[in-house]
Design goal:
The chain has helices at about 40-45, 85-125, 135-145, 150-160, and strands at about 60, 80. With about 170 residues, it is mainly alpha-helical. It starts with about 40 loop residues before the first helix and ends in a 7-residue tail after the last helix.
């Protein structure tokens, strides 16, 4: 059996996450070169560890062919060793990094919003949420009083306060 080619998904509606989670969506389609045709330097360094964008040849993305509009091929300044398969791998890495960054940003903003909301609610609250040691002592005393009530006393209080209800 011959090996079949692999295609990427083409979803009609790419809203798999909740709408409120979206911070900013880039306009480019190729994450390898960000639709410039030149592979991003941080991705090139994954392949060429000592890559210098100011001295080395320009690595060209084969994933989107955006660099074809430039006539630099004739001058020998382009690095075309990055084939389509490698560009697709770099694109997937960049997409994954992008997703992680946006999730971290979302969590950071969510935490900031939570802190700000708590501060606002505390400043507008009529009840004091911070107990003093005296308040804690009073709560402990009331709790021990309630726990000390016997079963017979509960029945008497029930009869006193719930007049009209029959005992079982």
């Amino acid at each position: 059996m011959t090996e079949l080619p692999k295609f990427e998904r083409l979803p009609i509606n790419d809203k798999t996450e909740r709408d409120d989670k979206e911070i900013w969506q880039p306009r480019w389609h190729c994450f390898c070169c960000q639709d410039t045709g030149q592979i991003q330097a941080h991705l090139v360094r994954l392949i060429i560890s000592d890559y210098d964008p100011h001295r080395d040849r320009i690595p060209v993305c084969q994933g989107c062919n955006k660099f074809n509009k430039h006539n630099l091929r004739d001058y020998g300044v382009l690095d075309t060793r990055f084939d389509l398969f490698l560009c697709k791998k770099l694109d997937a890495i960049s997409r994954s990094e992008w997703k992680n960054v946006t999730e971290k940003q979302f969590e950071k903003y969510k935490k900031q919003l939570y802190i700000a909301t708590n501060q606002i609610s505390k400043s507008h609250s009529l009840a004091s949420s911070d107990r003093t040691s005296n308040d804690d002592r009073e709560v402990a005393q009331r709790k021990s009083e309630v726990e000390g009530i016997s079963r017979e006393q509960w029945k008497e209080m029930k009869n006193d306060y719930l007049v009209g209800k029959k005992d079982e």
